[in-house]
Write a structure and sequence with these properties.
This protein is α/β, with parallel strands linked by helices. 43% of the residues lie in helices and 22% in strands. It binds zinc ion. Zinc ion binds next to loops.
Length: 376
């Protein structure tokens, strides 16, 4: 119901009844519970369809209630958002390989946001590019910086007085897709989110929940072996991992190789974002580098589809912006490898927008609010 109101607000109880086949009395009882929880509010009256003018409902969005912290190998981004996931304020800094320095900057900004919002912030969600144990709030291993067993949640919570939830970046983005994604994804019970960034990670949604495995370590498919002699080393150091063939770094390496006969000085330094921009403008080497990367991305996705038979696979990250260029390479590779008789899955670009891991970090808090309303 909360999702329904969020997607269609402002909406009346009568409209919800018409569209959902739920009893009016059931809807009224749920709306009552949601407003007691402070999740839904009434906003004036809608058009009358004959009788009394209906009262319209929407999510309570007066204030920021969540802080999201997205730590990536290059940048750390913090933002506040309201209950509907709309971003209110955003700041970022360059991630320091020293965890103490990065955490101190995070804590300073969390405090600043918390004070500014006069106690309306209910929690902090942190997304990390590595192995995370959400039950203890510990970053078990972040390969880019060799962070080991860092009590991230406790450190931020002790310093800010706020509850802190942490998760692996791909799991967090999968959660964001589940709650805030397009209906084709959020309505699916089983889907896999493939996050292409500096690394490649997967978040598995199994029966409507994130599948975590022992100590939260499930979904490390970035390290499945799909070939030899990748264009770049994986974050684990090996040259045969899916990540080493399909990450942003792999695409950049392919681009540099293709461009090497020409003017390489013009090519560097540049980021993956610029590579995507160039490809979208029609630059041949950038397009070829993305298409080849999509082919390897497709090989890994085929393996996941064959093994899990999910309803959908969602590809997130900057590469989703170049969907028109990479879609056919991806789907051709996948269709080629799906064995006859086995169902295929929908392959979709993420629609979470610019900063999926930030959306994911915010979802760690927001999904908890929505889930608490379910439990109540
Ligand atoms: Zn690896």
């Amino acid at each position: 119901m909360l999702n329904y109101i969020r997607e269609r607000e402002p909406i009346s109880r009568a409209e919800i009844a018409r569209e959902t086949d739920l009893q009016r009395s059931t809807i009224s009882a749920i709306v009552e519970a949601l407003s007691t929880e402070g999740l839904v509010e009434e906003v004036g009256e809608g058009e009358s369809t004959g009788g009394r003018r209906p009262t319209l409902l929407r999510l309570r969005t007066k204030e920021a209630i969540a802080i999201g912290v997205s730590i990536t190998p290059s940048r750390t981004t913090l933002a506040t958002s309201d209950l509907a996931g709309r971003i209110v304020e955003q700041k970022e800094f360059l991630t320091d390989p020293d965890p103490d320095n990065t955490l101190n900057e995070v804590i300073a900004l969390v405090r600043e946001f918390s004070v500014k919002n006069n106690g309306s912030i209910e929690g902090v969600g942190v997304s990390l590019p590595g192995l995370v144990d959400p039950s203890t709030g510990t970053a078990v291993y972040v390969p880019y910086f060799k962070w080991r067993d860092i009590p991230i949640a406790k450190t931020i919570s002790n310093a800010s007085g706020l509850p802190v939830i942490i998760d692996n970046d791909a799991n967090a983005v999968a959660l964001a897709e589940l709650w805030f994604g397009r209906p084709e994804v959020s309505d699916a019970r089983d889907f896999i989110l493939v996050l292409v960034a500096e690394g490649v990670g997967t978040g598995i949604i199994f029966d409507g929940q994130v599948y975590r495995g022992q100590r939260g370590a499930a979904g490390e498919f970035g390290h499945m072996v799909i070939g030899t002699h990748a264009p770049v080393p994986c974050s684990c150091g090996n040259l045969d991992c899916w990540e080493a063939f399909s990450s942003e770094g792999a695409a950049k390496a392919r681009y540099l190789k293709l461009s090497s006969e020409r003017n390489i000085e013009n090519a560097a330094p540049f980021g993956f974002r610029e590579l995507v921009d160039q490809a979208l403008r029609g630059e041949a080497n950038a397009k070829a580098a993305l298409v080849e990367t999509a082919h390897y991305l497709g090989i890994g996705i085929s393996n996941l589809v064959v093994g899990f038979s999910p309803e959908a696979v969602v590809v997130g990250g900057e590469i989703a912006r170049a969907w028109s260029l990479v879609e056919s390479a991806l789907t051709e590779t996948i269709e080629h490898s799906i064995r006859r008789g086995l169902p295929s899955a929908k392959i979709l670009p993420s629609t979470l927008g610019e900063d999926p891991t930030l959306r994911g970090a915010l979802s760690l808090v927001l999904a908890g609010k929505f889930a608490a309303a379910f439990a109540a």
